[in-house]
Amino acid sequence: MKLLVVGSVAFDAIETPFGKTDKILGGAATFIGLAASVLKTDVSLVSVVGGDFPQEYLDMLESRNISTEGVEVVKDGKTFFWSGRYHNDLNSRDTLVTEVNVLENFDPKIPESGKDAEVLLLGNLHPGVQLSVLEKMEKRPKLVILDTMNFWMDTAWDILMEMIAKTDVITINDEEARQLSGEYSLVKAAQKIHSMGPDYVIIKKGEHGALLFHEGKVFAIPALPLEEVFDPTGAGDTFAGGFAAHLAKTGDFSFDNMKSAIIVGSAMASYTVEKFGTERLQEVTQQDLLDRIALFKQLTTFEVDLYFD
């Protein structure tokens, strides 16, 4: 199945306790596309960049069979730029610079080759932009996956509710789930969000893993304990990319296969944090991914000998 990804292709500048970078390749759609490419998924990106965006980055994406036909280049504009500094625990960060630039007036242009995509992953953009993508598709995709954030809950609530109602899978973090639902318990939060429209609710908990909810059923996966974490930027997007790519490759949207997709996404994200930006993700092979999935299996599989009278 075709996977269509709509989101940001951008520049990041990152500072963590382990070092800092100048402007490097970033953006949600970039991480998603690179993750999907490891699974050899038929993936197309829709985004916008400025004339300052290096052609070599687009060439790199194309070399991994990621279609950039839908990436608009505004010659006299500047690419979206974000700069942040992570605290020592890497769970919190301060935004230093946000330059929206060409993304401010982003009107997604869906290439003809992507209008019949069966799986649509909408990255964290204004919900009005996300809705416009659905309207431009030839027919409704078989699976619509949505990412959103607190900012849109604060500033675009009504249109966000309209978008969520048209969504099959929503992926948000625990803080966002609590704000969206008004519930502190993540179980209650998922139930409330489920009533808004999505069949599946994924709540990401960073270093504590992720939860999948569907019709009263729950699946939990831990994050893989890593010796070194250099940069968590893009980990959530990489997770979404691995998750969506697995579903597109298998064409199976059942709860059991969603569980497998979450494991794939988590394994992929565990690589992203090992280096700055997209550097580590560009190195990952299918065998690397299989090896990491095997570690997840070892981590979560056990037997118990009952000894009670």
From TrEMBL:
Keyword Repeat recorded: no
InterPro entries tied to this protein: Carboh/pur_kinase_PfkB_CS, PfkB_dom, Ribokinase-like
Keywords attached to this entry: Kinase, Transferase
Residues in Carbohydrate kinase PfkB domain copies: 3-279
A GO term for molecular function: kinase activity
Short name of one Pfam family: PfkB
Keyword Transferase annotated: yes
PROSITE patterns on file: PFKB_KINASES_2
GO cellular component: cytosol
Name listed for the protein in its UniProt record: Sugar kinase
